[in-house]
Amino acid sequence: MSKITANAAGTITLGELTVNRLGYGAMRLTGPGIWGEPRDPEEARRVLRRAVELDVNFIDTADSYGPEVSERLIAETLRPYPAGLVIATKGGLLRDGPDAWRPDGRPSHLRQALEGSLKRLGLERIDLYQFHRPDPKVPYQESVGELVRLKEEGKIRHIGVSNVDEEQLDLALALTEIVSVQNRYNVLDRASEGVLNRCEQLGMAFLPWYPLGAAQLTATGNRLATLASERGATPGQLALAWLLGRSRVMLPIPGTSSVAHLEENIAAAAMKLSHDDVELLAAA
Q1: Which of 265, 272, 213 is nearest to 244 (CA)?
Q2: In the chain, is it the N or the C terminus that has fewer CB atoms within a 10 Å radius of its CB?
Q3: Does residue 88 sit in helix, strand or coil?
Q4: Cβ–Cβ under 8 Å, residues 55 and 83
Q5: What is the pLDDT of residues 158-203, one digit of tens each?
Q6: Hey, which residues are catalytic here?
Q7: 6-212+246-255 carries CATH number 3.20.20.100
Q8: What is the pLDDT of residues 220-245, one digit of tens each?
Q9: Hey, where are the domains in the chain?
């Protein structure tokens, strides 16, 4: 049983909310292709309960995970929610089948998606609601504008955006306060470096999705694997430690459907990399 908890990563603020800087991404609590029910529903529930036991107080999900399965499992397992637990969810994607994702940024859809998330999660207000992905068929300002209206109605506490470039982030910021950005980012994929730098300038949380980089990060022979071996850690743990060391605004949300893997990920909160290690891995 791991004695290390998410507290070891320190904290970060989302507006007036303070959470530990290592969260949990609940996408993997579903079936293959992020579709349907999990293969082991009881293990999925154990993962959620164990995350809370390990002081994870930020859980990220979306209505499209399942669809609807992840949000429902969270509510079934964790309600009544522990004090201080922040559940962030997202809207703006439609599902047509396993591994199939289609953007829908129409204001009417986002309103419907938000109402559905409130009902499934058993909440009157979402602490952090994120626009999942820009829809090329809908002006970005129209999509974000609907979230602003929902916030004014008291259904959203804070707004975040996801899968954006710097221009889209600035468009959103011109409309409202944005407290977080969720983009793909890991030690081997830093295409969102410019967006991360903008978040640092603004003191805005950056949630890297796909933080472990999956198979690429576990490949033997690369610099990450070598340094992990030297530290007595797994490549995944080192990848998370690198993210935490890379920026003060980083809030990694590694996901898993296994309690053992969850504990392994959370143990990375206590790993401290030197500035040289961070720079070395970034250059690898």
Answers
A1: 272
A2: N
A3: strand
A4: no
A5: 999 999 999 999 999 999 999 999 999 998 888 999 999 999 999 9
A6: 65
A7: yes
A8: 456 777 787 888 888 889 999 999 99
A9: 6-212+246-255
